[in-house]
């Protein structure tokens, strides 16, 4: 595995305006248009820019042309890559003016990574550093580097090798990363450092972080605004971990009836936190409604009422009697410290209305003293609503994280609630099949009229059928009504379609048929056999896959140095299987696979997840070959002979696959017909192996 080198621009200021992910995307667009056109000029830019996701829905070609005309007098001037980037920034800047500033997210977890503003908040930095010092101070590897001095840039240097990132993710969601897969030598070579960063970023996606505009090179360079944006999301996920109804059933005390309870279950964690805060404030006699963690709490009054209500033994009226907001904030923090809430924010942060730090402060109060009783019968009765079986819950988690990893505008907190209006599904379809959605026919939230939701969902079903999904007797109203099994079946087909399309795009030279599940299985078996290993999989339901040995051998086949076989068990008992499964997931992410399965999916041989895991490894492997061959063909000046990727796939036993898979068409394979009459059988029947 070679060390990664990002896209480099000679102008350092221009380089600093983009993340590596953005640079790679824009470089690809630039190269494809330069190849397509004899001369790539300023006049050619408007239609190119109009198709970019960043400007879609903001500008049409005419508006982009108008912006560029102000900066470039001669539209016949030829465009090089740096000119392309500067023109992009000109249009982007106009877009920010047009929208009245950078578009914010409705969820605190979806931290903006815009490249327009690079200023960092020193107070937030100090708070996050204090958090890291507190939670990782006893870590065997990191303790020699801690505590970090928040007044210096040591934090940004320490994060560059990826170890701290991985460790912090495991603090936020324990068990996400098998720490045996982390490279923890004192001096890491570029390969090992890049592996850690890749593992960290893929694992961050797997716990719900939005990392669409962040690449390993950005972290390796210690870009402050991107590093803080990512660390902020990880810490928030940790702080809000108890704001769910399985961990804290007593949250149902916040509502009075079943309908309210269902709505509460669909709220983002920070919205639940606000509801909890207002619940106690109302009981304490506070007359205002807190709707945010910024302007509504900056005078400190709400905090004074909240702490008096939650900790009457420390109750004091000094804070409320204090007129100066800064002095009141000091009193509030002194009272909070008596509840063992660490001081991660200052009085100034409260007065300034720092949303991120105030959110963390309230979440910490909730963790230490939520003021809800555990023996409430209402909590028990509402908790019975959460009757999803384990597999349904795991699939909901997987699809939710996958959707959020795509970088859609709407952050999904609950698949069964957030997808019912059809809008998010349209966003996802537009991501995985660009141009498939006619946005003129779509109804944008908030949607009050039920029939508008049905219209959106009917469009979703129509597009699904165009993509050859199996949707027999399925109508948009089924999605609006929240039919869980049909929704999960649709999302599974959507995820599978996305992966097969990615693989198909890597075999453009082969002129062959569509990639099928049987092709993926054959490829994996051939890879393992080719390196002298003995494991073979009969299907993606093969119970022998539960040991994990086959996937570890496959990972070794595509990258010999990635698996440490001294850590691998025989997989003969449940404990050994769990160790192997956990290691497989971390090694695959370390390699570069973006996957969202859990160890239990491997141990129980969840056929869907086995297919996605194998396909992800296949995609990574073929992508490496494709990149290598592109470099070779550029050096040689001849693309004609650089087709071994196509050859690798074309050499699969396609005829043999067809014989063993009579229903290998994309619309039917691995998915029995999903009809409402048979919906109780969906989970068991929609996974028939090829």
UniProtKB/TrEMBL annotation:
GO biological process: actin filament bundle assembly; actin filament network formation
InterPro entries registered for this protein in UniProt: Actinin_actin-bd_CS, CH_dom, CH_dom_sf, Fimbrin/Plastin
Broad class of where this protein is predominantly found: cytoplasm
GO CC annotation: actin filament; actin filament bundle; cytoplasm
One function term, GO molecular function aspect: actin filament binding
Keywords: Actin-binding, Cytoplasm, Cytoskeleton, Repeat
Keyword Repeat assigned: yes
PANTHER family: FIMBRIN-5, FIMBRIN/PLASTIN
Name of the protein described by the UniProt record: Calponin-homology (CH) domain-containing protein
Annotated organism of origin: Microthlaspi erraticum
